[in-house]
Amino acid sequence: MTAQIKETLQDGSKTVILKNDELEVWINSKGCTILRLYVKDRDGNSQDVVLGHPEVEDYEKYVLYLGATAGRVCNRIKKGEFELNGTTYHLPINNGPNSLHGGIKGFSFAQFDTELLENGVRFHRVSPDMEEGYPGNLDVTIEFTLADHTLNIHYHAQSDQDTLVNLTNHSYFNLDGEPSYIGDHVLKLACEEFGCVDSDGLATGEIRNVEHTPFDFRDEKKIDEAFDDSYDQVQLGTGIDHHFIFNQDHDQAILFSEKTGIEMSVSTTLPGAQIYSANFLQGEPGKYAKKLPKRSAICIETQNMPDDIHINSENPTTLLRKDNVFDSKTSFTFKVR
Ligand code: BGC
């Protein structure tokens, strides 16, 4: 396994390449953004299984969060406002009436320090008190490591004041190795329940059982089967754009491409994931001169319950108390069928 700095860009960010016999991942230190992830298909050819833009500058231009870390709080916070310890905090409104993915200058566009490790890379930054409206100096470390067929991401954060934290990686996966229609991929989710959204994509707090809904992925099925516009939540989310609640502690999501034979299995210590079928892509420029059409990928954004500060205000899972530790691990394991 090798870890090396490929280049330092004009904005000071570094692109790191981690490589072993099975996987190769390119990560830029701005937003700890996964730019490329090469996996071998059933014929032994390398396929880049994440969407990306042609240039690193494009990531901030199009704000699709391709491959990026979303934080300090991923997903939506209602009206960009919350109360904590008697103080009301105001966040940038950047998605309809709500605040999305940590605000306008969230972690996706922040510079992290880079330290190469024997088996990966460690990114670090301190998000200052009141950055994008959030209280507390938040010390964040994100490690990416490779082990055989697995890419591991380990998040660690600590604050000097009570604050909110919900960190995820926002990779858009397409195991065909190109931005093809994601409806043809097969998905299996260890989930009996999902969270409903309103027409702005905000979590409403209503939890539904997946049974007899298009979102029943307990047995693997084509993602296309979920795009059933007669179902209210498909209409409201413009497809799949919902928090799924896991009912087991490993291999909670399994994605498969018939075309390349690549299977990806996602394991996480977190209780759920926003599953997003890239409904809002509109043909923006992608790598290898290919445009990024609507529904050409799927994001499996492992996280705590979105907008929990409002939904579960008594005991929000997204609350990080002063000097407590936020620690989570998510891994992506690849094999071929
Ligand atoms: C959200 C989508 C949003 C996308 C890109 C996802 O996490 O749920 O609604 O369009 O991120 O911002």
UniProtKB/TrEMBL annotation:
UniProt keywords (A-Z) are: Carbohydrate metabolism, Isomerase
GO biological process per UniProt: galactose catabolic process via UDP-galactose, Leloir pathway; glucose metabolic process
Q: Show the Pfam families listed in the entry.
A: Aldose_epim
Q: Which GO terms describe its molecular function?
A: aldose 1-epimerase activity; carbohydrate binding
Please verify whether the record's keywords include Isomerase: yes
Similarity comment: family membership: Belongs to the aldose epimerase family.
**Record's protein name:** Aldose 1-epimerase
